[in-house]
Amino acid sequence: HEKINRRIKDGVPFFSLEFFPPKTANGVANFFTRLDRYNEGGPLFVDITWHMGSNPANMAKETSSSSIAAGCLNYCRVDTMLHMTCAQYTKEETIRHLEQCKSVGLRSILALRGDLPPVTEEDQKPVYKYRALDMIRWVRAEFGNYFTIACSGYPLGHPEAPSYTADLQYLKAKVDAGAQFIITQLFFEAEVFEKFVRDCREIGITVPIIPGIMPIMGYESIRRIAALSQLTIPDWILKDLEEIKNDDDAVGRYGTVKAVEMCRRILKNGSASSIHLYTMNREGFCREILQELGLWQKRPGRTLPWEPHGPNHPTR
Ligand code: FAD
User: Which domain of life is it from (predicted)?
Assistant: First the structure.
């Protein structure tokens, strides 16, 4: 069970992959086939995002975050971490969700606050009853060390934080409460991550900090994601993209080159030993990045029993 946590602590270079749950039953089949192919590269773990309204009690729904996570773990046999947000639930509901995770064998959680839906009054902000820190405390209090817990970190500070320094202190509180490693929000420039790691270490955050890498795979999509995350895309990137923005393949290739450059730098200077890829459920460019970085392990693909040459195939 401690595999994720132990290997991260060992400092052995690895990669991990984030996916969102597919939206349709057809998408589910494609998703697991893609994951099987990704598995050949030897990810340390994959993680599945959680969406407002997700509810593991609804395991029957094949596209729920928890069903997909259970499938990754039990069908594709890859260590799996489930994201879980707590802002929109009661404490009891969150604990019930964790019980459900336990019942399907999941032992790793990315504990998050999440966002509430915007309130109707225009200038009113949503009121958060619980934050990630609360959830981490509940998990440890109710489940001891059963779950490996990860938490989010924001290299530029969370947009709602009173200040960058306050956000760092809050991150330290999450780690002190039991988070065993940090996965960061996406960032566009290596120095942003490098500074964040230095600042974390300075205030005594000693757990591994894994850079969350979002390769640029589309002009509109990266602009949308940056806007949602309240991040500014640096001007030099926008300028580069301006010339190729209508050519999706060129944008993807540009994103691949830039992601490789940025990762090489932070891996080489020791700011990180591993990377976490936000795949957006895509494959080609992500795989290329991992191969370029030498993190892809080229394990033999698994042969399923019903495939030609599989162990149970009638021709054998
Ligand atoms: P928290 O860590 O709880 O922090 C929220 C804010 O509260 C911060 O600004 C923090 O500084 C502030 N704060 C809390 N307590 C204090 C205090 N005492 N004093 C001062 N400030 C305080 N969203 C999803 O809906 N589903 C997902 O699957 C998902 N996956 C994500 C994965 C990663 C790696 C990251 C980085 C984000 C992900 N998100 C996801 C987005 C996330 O839910 C939002 O960014 C959300 O706004 C914050 O969630 P959090 O757990 O990071 O919040």
Answer: Eukaryota
Does ligand 1 lie within 6 Å of residue 126's CB atom?
no
Find, among 289, 274, 281, 157, the residue nearest to 215 by Cα.
289
Encoded tokens for 264: 């090489």
- Between CA 228 and CA 240 the distance in angstroms is 22
pLDDT single digits (tens) 168-226: 999 999 999 999 999 999 999 999 999 999 999 999 999 999 999 999 999 999 999 99
Backbone angles phi, psi at 112, to 5 degrees: -130, 155
Which residue in the block uniquely carries the two structure tokens 């923005």? 245
Distance from C-alpha of 158 to C-alpha of 164, rounded to nearest angstrom: 8
- CA proximity to 50, closest of 101, 2, 12: 101
CA–CA dist 303, 112 (Å, integer): 36
Helix crossing, 132-143 with 164-177: angle to 10°? Answer: 10
205 vs 182: CA distance, rounded Å: 10
pLDDT in tens, 237-252: 999 999 999 999 999 9
Angle value at C-alpha 143, between 139 and 148, nearest 5 degrees: 65
DSSP lists the bridge partners of residue 276 as: 16, 212
Closest residue to atom 10 of ligand 1, CA basis: 161
The DSSP call for residue 243 is T
Q: pTM value? A: 0.93
- Expressed in angstroms and rounded, the spacing between residue 58 Cα and the centre of ligand 1 is 25
